[in-house]
Structures are given as structure tokens and as C-alpha cells.
Design a protein that fits this description.
single chain, about 210 residues, alpha/beta, Glutathione S-transferase Yfyf (Class Pi), Chain A, domain 2, 5-stranded mixed sheet, Glutathione_S-Trfase_N, GST N-terminal domain-containing protein, Glutathione_S-Trfase, Glutathione-S-Trfase_C_sf
Length: about 210
């Protein structure tokens, strides 16, 4: 349902940053069948958002959608649910940062920094990530192959939860239970999700 050319045309515009939470907004809009257009932004070599994105959102984060004269930022506000953003995402982001710090440390002291970052993750982050993963696994076991809210179709809870779970599947896959792994595969196989991937471009968090 997306068009990446000919701005503006009265459609919703999704300001999409590669390898970001905006990927789940593309999935949402494809599921809903809402006409929209994509304006793509690529991260810098330092993995930051480009300056052009600040013209749309002064803090330079994505997703942002433009509907007429209104710019709406933050996926939680766009989808209107906040459990994954308020609880799980900060843990995932902090864990990811510890890996980045290690990778960018000069090689001479990298083993020491890597050891310290691993200790930090083990003490402050991984126990809480594991707890969240267990709660999600329990819920997915309860719905027995269904969606988080228990219905027959994905809801805001699924659109929001997908990104942190995809991140965990890369950083700490051992925390994800069998039903969570099946849930991720089921989402990744949905035609609307695949269309969102094709339209959004390179995305490292899904097969």
C-alpha cells in the first residue's frame, strides 16, 4: 500500500529510519491497508539518525508520521500502547549500548571493557530481561498460538512488542521461550510484515 515517490499527495507519510522502531509502523499500516508513503533515512556510520530527520522531529528519532500539517512522533503514541516502550525497551537499549561500547573500545583495552560490560549486563540487565521474557512466554502459552491480546488478529500490543523481541532474538536468544520463538516466526511470515520489510529496506532484526 506504500508509495515512496511524489511527495506530498495527501497520504500519511512515514518517516522511516533503517534498523529502527519505525519498521513496526510499516507492518501496522500494511495490516490495516492504509495508503501511505515512505520517506527513508539512513543511519550515519556512527549509527545515529541523519540531520535531515531533525527537520521533522527535532530530537532526531523515528518513527514519525506526517498527516497533513501534523507530525506525530514515537511509536507508542502512533500505536497508542506503552507497555513495551516503558518497561522492556529501556532494558534492551541499555544492553545493546553495552555491546556497542565494547565494540568501539580500542583493541588494547577491549577485553577489560568487555568483561566489565558483561558483568554489568549480568547484574543489572539480564535478570530483568529474563523476567520480561518469561512473562511474555507465559502469556503466549495462555493464548495458545494466538495474539497477545487474545484475539484472532494482531493488535497494538503485537505491533509494539515485535521490535524489542526481535532485538532480544539477536542479543539474548536464549531468553526466549519456544512459544515466543514461534510467535516471532508467525509474524515474520505474515504477508503484511513481509511487504513492510520490502518497502522499508535493510533491516537487521528479521530474517
Amino acid at each position: 500500500m506504500a508509495d515512496t515517490n511524489n511527495f506530498p499527495s495527501g497520504k500519511i507519510i512515514v518517516h522511516h529510519l533503517n534498523n529502527s522502531r519505525s519498521q513496526r509502523i510499516l507492518w501496522l499500516l500494511e495490516e490495516l491497508g492504509v495508503p501511505y508513503e515512505i520517506k527513508k533515512y539512513q543511519r550515519t556510520p556512527g549509527l545515529l539518525a541523519p540531520e535531515e530527520l531533525e527537520a521533522v522531529n527535532p530530537i532526531g528519532t523515528a518513527p514519525v508520521i506526517t498527516d497533513g500539517s501534523v507530525n506525530l512522533a514515537e511509536s507508542g503514541a502512533i500505536v497508542d500502547t506503552h507497555a513495551s516502550e516503558g518497561s522492556l525497551m529501556p532494558l534492551f537499549v541499555n544492553s545493546y549500548i553495552t555491546h556497542i561500547i565494547t565494540e568501539r573500545t580500542p583493541w588494547l583495552i577491549r577485553p577489560i571493557v568487555g568483561f566489565l560490560m558483561a558483568k554489568l549486563r549480568a547484574k543489572a540487565l539480564e535478570p530483568r530481561l529474563r523476567t520480561h521474557a518469561q512473562m511474555i512466554e507465559q502469556r503466549l502459552t495462555e493464548v495458545d498460538g494466538g495474539w497477545i491480546a487474545g484475539g484472532e488478529q494482531p493488535t497494538a500490543a503485537d505491533y509494539m512488542m515485535i521490535f524489542p523481541l526481535e532485538g532480544m532474538s539477536m542479543l539474548c536468544p536464549e531468553f526466549l521461550g519456544i512459544n515466543t520463538q514461534r510467535y516471532l516466526r508467525r509474524i515474520h511470515e505474515r504477508p503484511a510484515y513481509r511487504r513492510g520489510l520490502e518497502l522499508g529496506g535493510k533491516y537487521d532484526y528479521a530474517p
